[in-house]
Amino acid sequence: MTEPIVVSAPGKVLLAGGYLVLDPAYSGLVISASSRFYTVVRDAPADLPNRILVRSPQFIGAEWKYSVNFNGNEVIVEEILDSAANRNKFVHYALQYTLKLASEYSASTFEEVLSHGLEILTIGDNDFYTQKREPGSPSPTIASLSEIPPFCPLNVPLSEVQKTGMGSSAALITSIVSALLLKFGVVSKEGFAQLDGRDRVLAHNTAQSVHCLAQGKVGSGFDVSAAVFGSHVYTRFDPKVLAPLMKITGDFANLALIPLQPILDPAVPVHNKPTWTSRVEPFQLPPLVRLVLADVAGGSSTPSLVRKVNEWRSNNPDDAKKLWSDIDASNKSLVEGLRNLIAMYKENTDAYEATVQILSLLQPVQWTTIDTEEIAKPVVQAFDKVFRASETTRTLMRKMGENAGVDIEPAAQTDLLDKSIAQAGVIGGGVPGAGGDDAIWVLVLEPKNTTKLPLLHVERVWHEFKQRKVSPLLATESTEKGVRVEQFDLVQGLKQAVTKRDYATENL
Fold it and tell me: Does residue 6 contact residue 486 with C-beta atoms inside 8 Å?
């Protein structure tokens, strides 16, 4: 039995560009989170040719069985159903399209890999799901959450789990697709490690396609892009590139008629080939700046919000264009300000760190009123610019919500964010992505060598907030640059989580 292949992909937070990111004329700032989704691919424990078992040990009854039929160009992955309610569309589509793609490279390798059958295990960090609390128990803190074992069982069926909105489906699909491409030899570990190389781009294009097909629509794609490439400024691809595949949604028998290599592999030359036009500009938050996330017990329907905003935009094109241009300018100012801070840190690290120390003790409205040394003034002004850009974007997004008749930033979220941002050392905050009532993000200063961290003040606000239950998440920004290959024995808690039960495979 060969060594298992383990791939992880991060969750995401769209800090700026909600709604606008759907239009390739605009961009969005997406931050990849330190919380990750893992896929383990290994040979089946018993010889089960052309069979695949997928299981997710965090949930009750989360097992799916498939058979693979391979005949020339035709590859059909059929689910072996115990019951119709047990279907997992995201997993099924990931298997179908990735295996079809793999078969186009080497039929002999394809048959060899499947000759013993495969077992696939998927598991996510705790931050992807709302952790259940006993009635009357105190609100969790970052310290208490860090004591929960990794990959904590949810003890409910997958259909009943509450998600935190960090892009679990995009991270899941990206990790499955990437692990399978490695298993079938379509990409190599060395090639996969190159951020803008062919192997990683192929994984992106495949995962992006699978995610759109499973959802039945072509979305903006920023969540998959973050799962593959890490934090970046994202501009979406032209949906036309997926038009041939979207026509065969749900009808796998017709898939054999369309070669996937010309659509997905950037290294395959084809005349008049549709191109993936998405743009990725790598990004990282400045030093001593921490991203903090909260799961808010509210709940909003993102498709409903997007539909109503799109209707407003269609009915009011001139007003919408002006407002979107203003939001875009504010978003660009935010990105420029954050990048400028990185440059200042590199230019004079000592002055930067000393200024962060001072600002962490003051409310943002006080930053430009204090006397500082001349060398620190540009840093103070740069942090103030980020704060003002963040607040301007919030104001404009609320205006768009009012115009469209939707709560992009509901009143309770406004109150929570205002209280959070008023704390010393907080740079900015907002509702991620399309907004709504289920999450917020905040950027705080995190100076060295101090116990007076702004994070503690923000946590206190969340703990005392009465209108909603607010739970912090452990996630910060990931600096690992997106999807990556892992070593099975080195991921804390992974081996224990995937082997805690003896799963029978005799009926596979």
Answer: yes
